[in-house]
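RECORD TYPE: inverse folding
INPUT: structure tokens
STRUCTURE:
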């Protein structure tokens, strides 16, 4: 199932969004742990591929809104936590790069 979801994320574009969105929603599991993994996967793809962030965010939104409210709340929490962690990692990486001298700079 995760391979099929990953395949959809790899293939999706604005041209085939409607068709693959239907397939995406049909594959979204009801198991909370698997749902959380699917959300993490889609968020990671959105971070890695900025040109497709809007498409991935629409898929995530569709997945969350297609579930009962108790599951949707859990998914929303997972989504916010995952984005928070990714932002922390990226900010840390940026800060490290900012304070790390370039190789050609002398270190006095």
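DESIGNED SEQUENCE:
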């Amino acid at each position: 199932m995760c391979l099929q979801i990953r395949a959809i994320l790899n293939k999706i574009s604005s041209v085939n969004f409607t068709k693959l969105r239907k397939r995406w929603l049909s594959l979204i599991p009801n198991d909370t742990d698997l749902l959380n993994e699917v959300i993490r996967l889609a968020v990671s793809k959105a971070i890695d591929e900025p040109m497709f962030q809007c498409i991935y965010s629409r898929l995530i939104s569709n997945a969350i809104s297609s579930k009962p409210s108790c599951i949707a709340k859990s998914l929303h929490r997972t989504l916010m936590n995952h984005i928070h962690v990714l932002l922390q990692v990226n900010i840390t990486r940026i800060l490290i790069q900012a304070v790390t001298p370039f190789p050609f700079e002398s270190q006095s």
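NOTES: Helices lie at 2-11, 17-27, 32-48, 53-65, 69-99.
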